[in-house]
Design a protein that fits this description.
Mean pLDDT: 92
Shape: globular
Keywords: Cell membrane, Cell shape, Membrane, Transmembrane, Transmembrane helix
Subcellular location: Cell membrane
Family: Belongs to the MreD family.
Main location: membrane
CATH class: Mainly Alpha
Number of strands: 0
CATH topology: Arp2/3 complex 21 kDa subunit ARPC3
Number of helices: 7
Protein name: Rod shape-determining protein MreD
């Protein structure tokens, strides 16, 4: 029960930080995606089910507050959480290479998924512009922030597992 409450608080905290503090720190209207970091992290640390659940609630928050299509982000984040959960068996906590590469891939998948749903459905095909001006800069910014935030998420997860 304690683990669920802490994870829910982490989701809310990351959402609030992403919506406020990191919007103020945006570079060229690009800000890091803390929800991807959280979803991917709990996916490869906790497995497919936990990744899907965390992803669903992260995406649902974004859908409720910022989304045009209710459920779009929830589905994308759920798949990202599930996909990262596939790497649970080869996850080694002290090594940053796997988490960094999985979070990078997750951010890229999120950007491409958002492009496919939001832009292609409206017949806007400026893919290379979207890739170079939004997807890749956000990916880079998210990776830089991951270097600082991931260790904190990992320590909280370890603490929650030892308390259980």
């Amino acid at each position: 029960m304690k683990r669920k409450i802490v994870i829910a608080l982490m989701i809310l905290l990351c959402f609030l930080l992403q919506s406020t503090v990191f919007q103020a720190l945006a570079i060229g209207s690009i800000s890091p995606n803390l929800m991807i970091i959280l979803t991917a992290s709990f996916g490869f640390m906790g497995g497919r089910k936990e990744g899907m659940i965390v992803g669903f609630f992260c995406g649902l928050l974004e859908d409720i507050f910022y989304g045009r299509l209710l459920g779009m982000h929830a589905i994308i984040y759920m798949y990202i959480g599930y996909g990262n959960g596939q790497f649970n068996r080869i996850f080694y906590g002290d090594d940053i290479k796997l988490p960094l590469s999985l979070i990078s891939a997750s951010e890229l998948i999120y950007g491409l998924g958002t492009y496919m749903i939001m832009f292609v459905m409206r017949s806007r095909f400026a893919f290379f512009h979207y890739l170079t001006s939004i997807i890749l800069p956000e990916l880079l910014y998210t990776v830089i922030v991951t270097l600082f935030i991931y260790r904190l998420i990992y320590k909280i997860n370890v603490r929650l597992k030892t308390d259980s």
